[in-house]
Amino acid sequence: MDPEVRENTISILVNNKPDVLARIAGTFSGRGFNIESISANVTRNPAVTKIIITTLSNRETLTKLVKLLNRLLDVLEVEDLTGMESARREMVLVRLKTNEHQNARVLKAVERYGWKVISNEPEGFVLEVTGDREDIDRALTILEPLGMDDFTRTGTVALANGHG
Amino acid sequence: MKLTGSQILFRALKEEQVETIFGLPGGAVLDIFDELYRSDVNHILVRHEQGAIHAADGYARASGRVGVCLVTSGPGATNTVTGIANAYMDSIPVVVLTGQVSTMLIGNDAFQEVDITGITRPCTKHNFLVRRVDELGRTIREAFKIARSGRPGPVLIDLPKDMMQSTADVETLSHALTYPEERQEPIEESCARALWLVRKAKKPLLFVGGGVILGKASEELRAFVRKLDLPVISSLMGLGAYPGTDPRWLGMVGMHGTYYANMAISHCDLLIAVGVRFDDRVTSKLDAFAPHAQIVHIDIDPTSIEKMVKTHVGIVSDCRPALQTLNRMLDEDPSMVPGERTRAWLEQVAKWKAKMPLTYHPGERIKPQHVIERLYKLTRGEAIVTTEVGQNQMWAAHYYHFDHPNTFISSGGLGTMGFGLPAAIGAQVACPDRVVVDIAGDGSIQMNIQEMATAVHYGLPVKVIILNNRYLGMVRQWQELFYGRRYSQTDLDHGPNFVKLAEAYGARGFRAEKPEDVDPTLRAALEAQGPVILDFQVEPEEGVYPMVKPGASLTEMDLGNGKVLAGSAVPEKVGAV
Ligand SMILES: Cc1ncc(C[n+]2csc(CCOP(=O)(O)OP(=O)(O)O)c2C)c(N)n1
Predict the structure, then answer these.
(1) B130 and B166, same structural domain?
(2) How many other C-beta atoms can be found within 10 angstroms of the C-beta atom of residue B67?
(3) CA–CA distance from B300 to each of B95, B153, B234 (Å)?
(4) Which of B111, B171, B351, B500 is catalytic?
(5) Are residue A43 and residue A101 in the same domain, yes or no?
(6) With an 8 Å Cβ cutoff, is A31 touching chain B?
(7) Same domain, A96 and A145
(8) Could you tell me the CATH number of the domain that includes residue A102?
(9) Counting CB atoms within 10 angstroms of each CB, which of B68, B311, B334, B381 has the fewest?
C-alpha cells in the first residue's frame, strides 16, 4: 500500500441534473473521503457539467475513487489530472476595510502582483486575485494586515494541457 | 393517443413482461392502484412494505428476473429501505415504485412526504424522481434495464401523484433511452494471462460467488471445472452455483467455512475467483488470506477488483462470457489441462475432506443440523430454501447441499433478519410448483411474521422451519465465545406459541420436541397443502462450527468441543504486487 498522501485533482464530466452533485458528494462521503475543493459549471454542451474536485489521498484510494465515480450512471468521464501537465487556477475575492495609510499600500501591491480592483470605495476595496494555490495563499498573507475583512475563495479549476 | 401516468406505468410494466408485483396501497398511489384494478398484472398484497421489497427480492432470486414492488409515499417508502439496502448489497435486480406527493408540494413537508430518492441514493444502483409525465415511460424502461444489466441492483422510481393523473402521448413510451449500454471490455488478453497462471499452477482452486448465479453462468462454470479438474469453494452467495454433491465441491469458505475449504484457500497457489467480492466474512484477516496464491478475479464490477485483495489478473466481465472465453481457450490448447501437475494437491484436498467433515453430536434434544439434514433428504435436495439470519442461516448453508442455482436464497451482504419469510413468499410466487422452505430462527421469524397472512391469503404453501433455540442464537454464540458467556439481551424465552400463532393466521402449525419427532413433523408439513409453521425445539446452546474468530486467519478454526486449530505460520505472500 502506498502511504503517500497527496493532493489529487480529478475532472469529472456529468449530466447536468439536479441530483448529480449529491451523488458525487455521496460517493466521497460514503467512503470517508474529503473533498478539499470543488468547482463546477456547464461545458460547451449545456446538458453536461464539468466538475473539478481536489482531494487528499494516496494512489490506491484515488484509483478506488475513480472507479466508484465511473460507476455512477450520470458520470460520463473521469479524468485524473494529478500526474498530468495541466493548468490550474483558483480565484479569490477579498474585501478590505482600509484607512488612508493602508490604501496606498494596497494599491501598490495590486500593481506589483497584477491583481484586479473590482471596487474602490472610500471605506475600502474589493480585489480579485487569480493564480495557483500558492499565489492565492501569498496574496492572503499580504492582505491580512492591510485591512482584510473577508474573502471568498473558489475551488481549483484545472485543464489538461494536451487536449481538452 | 393520450394516456394518464398510471396507464403509462402499466403499459410499461407490460412491455417489461412484469406478471406480478408486491405492494400495499396508500394515498399517494391511489391512482396507480385504481389502474391496477383494471389491469391484468397480478398483485400480492403484503402486510408490511418491508415484506413487499423482500418478496420482490426473493422473486427475483428464484426466477432470475426483475422483481417489482409498489408502495405509497412517506412511511410506505421508508419501510422499504432495509429491503432496498438488502438487495443492493446482494446485487439483486428489483424495481421499487414509490408514491410521492404532487410535484408542487414537494419540499413543503407535505403529509407523507419524504425525500426517498435522497434517502436511498447510497443504497440503490440508481434512482429517479419523475418530474414530467412525458418522461415516465422512458424512465420505467430505463429503470428495468439498469436493474438487470451489468452488476444488477435495486432501482427506485419516485412517482408524484400529479404525474400519475396527468396525461402524455402514448408515443412517449417509446422514447429512446438516455443512458448508454454498459460496455463489456475486451477480455481476450486478460483471459490468456489468467490461463498462463493456470498452466503453471500446482495447487489451483476455484472460488465462486453470487455473480455466477446472477450472471447465469453455472453451465459454463461446470464445463470449466471439468476441463481443469480443480476443487471448488464458494461464498455464502455462491451456494448452488456449483453442485453441492459433486466430489470436487468443498463447500463454503470463510468465518463459518468448512475445514477443508479454509485449508484449501490457505494453501492453494492459484485462486480463480469468479463473481465474488471478497467480503470480510470470507477473507477474515486480510494479511493471512490465501497467502500463497496468485489471484485471478473475474467480476463484472471493476470496483470489486483490487478492492480487498491484490489481484494478479483482473477480468472485468460478466461471468458467462469470461468463462466461455476461458473454456474456448482451454479447448484450443490441451497442454493446459493439468493432469499430473496437480495430482498431489488433489490428494491433499481429499485428505482434508476426509479428516474433518462437518459434524455435530446427536443428543437427547433435537439438533438443528439434524433437522436440516432430514429436510434435505425428505425434499431430495430439490427445495428452494430461503433463510433468516444467524445460526439458522449457517446450518442451512452447511447441511442442505444445493445442486442448482437460484435455490438458496439468503441475505448475504446485509444480514437482514426478517428476510426469509417474505423472500419465500416471493420465491413461491415465482415458482408455484416448487417446495419452498424458510429456515428460520425464533428471533428472525418474528421480524416479518405478519407475512403469514399474505401466505394464507394467496394460498402460498411456504413451509417455515423454526429452529427454536429460545435465543438470538448467533449473538448468544458470540457472547459465549468472546464475552465470557454474559448473555446480555439475547434470551428469547417467553416467545409466542408458534403453533397457535400459525393457526391464528389460518395456517397449520406443528411442534417437534424430541429427535424422533423430526421426521414425522417434516413429513406432515411437506404433505400439507397450505402454509405451515414448524416449531423445532432445538438444543438451546448449540453452536455453529467451524468458526474462525473475527480477525483471525482462516486456518485458526474453532471446531467446537474445545478443539481450536492454531494457525499455521504464514510465510510472505507469494508474488504479492
Ligand atoms: C435486523 C437485524 N437486527 C439485528 C441483527 C443482529 N443479529 C444477527 S444474528 C442475530 C440473532 C438471530 O437470532 P435467531 O433469528 O433466533 O436465529 P439463530 O441465530 O438463533 O438461528 C441477530 C440479532 C441482524 N442481523 N438483523
Answers:
(1) yes
(2) 32
(3) 20, 13, 17
(4) B111
(5) no
(6) no
(7) yes
(8) 3.30.70.1150
(9) B334
Residue numbers in chain B where pLDDT is lower than 50: 569-577
pLDDT at A1: 54
Which triple of cell numbers denotes residue B242?
456449483
Q: Helices (H) and strands (E) in chain B — how many of each?
A: 22, 22
Are residues B494 and B422 located together in one domain of the fold?
Answer: yes
Is position B206 within any domain? yes
Q: Which residue numbers of B have CB closer than 8 Å to A's CBs?
A: 117-118, 121-122, 126, 129, 146, 179, 301-303, 306-307
User: Sorting pLDDT into bands at 50, 70 and 90, what band is A2?
Assistant: low
> Which domain covers residue B471, as residue numbers?
368-537
Residues B240 and B376 in one domain: no
User: What does the pLDDT read at residue B204?
Assistant: 97
Does residue A10 sit in the same domain as residue A66? yes
Q: Does residue B418 contact residue B80 with C-beta atoms inside 8 Å?
A: no
In a domain, B543, yes or no: no
- Helices B30-38, B5-15: inter-axial angle, 10-degree rounding: 60
DSSP per-residue codes, B111-124: TT---HHHHHGGGS
Closest chain A residue by Cα to residue B121 = A23
Q: Tell me how close the Cα of B154 comes to any Cα of chain A, in angstroms.
A: 14
Predicted pLDDT at B528: 96
Residue B393 Cβ inside 6 Å of ligand 1? The answer reads no
Backbone angles phi, psi at B210, to 5 degrees: -60, -25
Residues B30 and B62 in one domain: yes
Q: Does the beta carbon of B441 sit less than 6 angstroms from any atom of ligand 1?
A: yes
B130 CA: distance to closest CA in chain A (Å): 12
Name the 3-class secondary structure at B37.
Answer: helix
Distances in Å between the Cα of B353 and the Cα atoms of B180, B238, B301, B458, B480 are 48, 20, 33, 45, 28
Across A127-154, average pLDDT:
96
B416 lines ligand 1 (CB under 6 A): yes
Q: Give me the DSSP letters along B249-282.
A: EEEE-STT--HHHHHHHHH-SEEEEES----HHH
Active-site option among B112, B165, B348, B450: B112
For residue B126, what are the β-bridge partners? B155
Interface ipTM? 0.88
B174 alpha carbon, distance to own chain's centre: 34
| B485 found inside a domain | yes
The answer to whether the CB atoms of B302 and A67 lie below 8 A apart is: yes
Residues B351 and B395 in one domain: no
User: Cβ–Cβ of A73/B307 closer than 8 Å?
Assistant: no
> pTM of the prediction?
0.95
Instruction: Say yes or no: A99 and A114 in one domain.
Output: yes
> Is residue B574 situated within a structural domain?
no
**pLDDT tens by residue, A80-96:** 998 888 999 999 999 99
Domain final residue pick, A62, A84, A106: A84
Where in the sequence is the domain holding A139, given as residue range(s)?
87-160
B225 and B269 fall within a common domain: yes
pLDDT of residue B569: 46
For chain A, what is the domain count? Answer: 2
- Ligand 1 centroid–CA B474 distance in Å is 6
Is B514 in the active site?
Answer: no
- Quick one: pLDDT at residue B525? 97
Q: Which of residues 37-76 of A touch B (CB under 8 A)?
A: 63-64, 67-68, 70-71, 73
The answer to whether the CB atoms of A67 and B303 lie below 8 A apart is: yes
- Options B255, B356, B417, B474, the catalytic residue: B474
> Around Cβ B509, how many Cβ atoms within 10 Å?
22
Rounded to the nearest angstrom, the distance between the alpha carbon of B441 and the centre of ligand 1 is: 8
Same domain? A124 vs A80:
no
Q: Tell me the CATH number at B83.
A: 3.40.50.970
Task: State residue B573's pLDDT score.
Answer: 43
- Distances in Å between the alpha carbon of B79 and those of A1, B168, B314? 41, 31, 38
Q: Say whether both B395 and B340 belong to one domain.
A: no
